[in-house]
What we know:
The protein is of the alpha+beta class and 174 residues long.
Amino acid sequence: MLEYAKLGSEEVELEPMDIGGVIRDVVDDLSTLVRDSAASITLPKERILVTADRVKLYRIFSNLIANAIKYRDPSRPPELQITTSTIPRRRQCSIMVQDNGRGIPADKLQLIFRPFTRIHLDVEGGSGIGLASVRRLAEQLGGSIGVTSTEGKGSVFTLTLPLADAAAAALAPA
């Protein structure tokens, strides 16, 4: 709870960074969890520069990836696909984190970003702060986060962030 409360007062240091590099660092740091769960993770191949705070971006992906593994369907190993795409006209990048987990019931989708909300109460641990923090962090970076999900099949979390100026200029239509 204290960590969530501090989110509004932390300084934001925006700088251009490669989204794939941050995601690779998170996956490396979660390697024990990935190995122990037999998870497979497909990482983005293209290099896309966004404007973000590295620590905040790391926390977003750490939460999304760890949750995908934590809330996996117990009948199959977790599979995550992380893909990126650019929206040049809007000077934005979308990063999709797709899993084959339990999914989220349709009537609960609007609740998952609220503080202290837990959907899968049978899974140990967690305070219901993680996704609320992810939303707050995304907003601090000038972005947004949303989710689509099918219960029993998995979820797709879509994070949208501003492209770094050089990247946006190179992708913008003439």
